[in-house]
Amino acid sequence: MSENNETEATVRDAGLADVVACHSSICLVDGKAGQLLYRGYDVADLAGHSTFEEVAYLLWYGRLPGLTEFQVFLDGFTGSMHLPVETVMILRMFPHAATPMEVLRTAVSSMGHWDPDSGNTRLDAILRKAQRITERIPLIISSHQRLRDGHEPVEPRHHCGIAFNFLYTLTGKEPDPILVKAMDTSLILHADHELNASTFTARVTAATLTDIYSAMTSAIAALKGPLHGGANAEVMKMLEEIGEAYKAEGWVKRQLAEKKKVPGFGHRVYRCEDPRATVLRESARQITTLVGKPRYFEIAQEVEKAMLNYSKVYPNVDFFSAPLYNAMGIPTELFTPIFAISRAVGWTAHILEQWKNNRLIRPTAHYVGPSLTPYADIGTRS
């Protein structure tokens, strides 16, 4: 291999940056323009006018539904939300130290055993499984949290949306409609983001023609990693560490001087502000004001101002979701699981798309080890 080719291969192998792995009609991320489209629809437009359930329909079926067909869809999707008895039994068995993401990973894997469509590979059966997984992930998270806190799980309300039922089953109280709307907006914004680490993992797993529960479990395992799904929790820890808005500039300057990463800033794709951050900034402003907890949002604003001033790096989707979820009373350790609630529709949409024209995903490694080496008897090795 020539020196130029070797250099090119080495650069391209670094995290598969800019390597096109598949053709997809689900999501467009335009990093230069700061635009995110689901099936051609601007995510900001969807966040302002749509619902998470309608976005799920869009990602699964490739178009927005008409009124009658959407009502039929909702009857099947949110009309009978529940956790299998066996899943609740498993949740009771986890040690108290088990983290929510560990619990979610194992619980989702186990649900395949009790799915009535287990083993059925017809498209209609796979879509039913996608719906069951999506409606049950928030119930797994809220039920486990309640059990950890010494409370019994709360049954969801049928024909109420994912955002409503997550907040309701987490607290046991009917949530304020404004909080439901804010959560619904956040779920829409996180629903898909092209071939991020967890989505690519789901497609690689699905390409082996395994079942949908296995592919989803692998996606959750990838999301669990701190370099992917844990960023918003790290943002919250940062805001708590700074403590007061007037301390933010000095804290940022010290981080940058020590060449340390500031959580919630920068993105592998966007070269301008993440369009999801634009929407979440206003949502966080509204909710922190509504509940009378503006402190962390004010700190976040000062961190953003300092980062733009000293490094010209923009906030990403994780940055404003942290003060938003905190103001809603959600424990920090549930921030990443909430990501999974939303991304479940994107993961399942990509799994379905992968199976439409499947080919086993098998990239090639650029070998940098030793050349052919003769085997030496163990007694003669130095």
What does this molecule look like?
The protein is mainly alpha-helical and 382 residues long. The chain has helices at 3-13, 43-49, 52-61, 67-77, 85-93, 100-111, 123-148, 162-171, 177-190, 197-206, 212-224, 231-242, 248-257, 275-290, 295-310, 317-327, 335-356; strands spanning 27-30, 35-38, 41-42. Strands 1-2-3 form a three-stranded antiparallel sheet. The longest helix is centred in the middle third of the chain and has 26 residues, at 123-148.
Q: What coarse outline follows from CA principal-axis ratios?
A: globular
Query: Widest sheet: strand order?
Result: 1-2-3
Query: Which structural category fits the helices and strands?
Result: mainly alpha
Indicate the percent of residues in helices.
55-70%
The averaged pLDDT comes out at 93
How far apart are the first and last residues' alpha carbons, in Å? 31 Å
Task: Say how many strands there are.
Answer: 3
The major β-sheet equals: 3 strands, antiparallel
Query: How many whole angstroms does the radius of gyration measure?
Result: 22 Å
Counted by DSSP, the helix tally is 17
Q: Beta fraction of the residues?
A: under 5%
Order of helices and strands: HEEEHHHHHHHHHHHHHHHH
Low-confidence stretches: 1-6
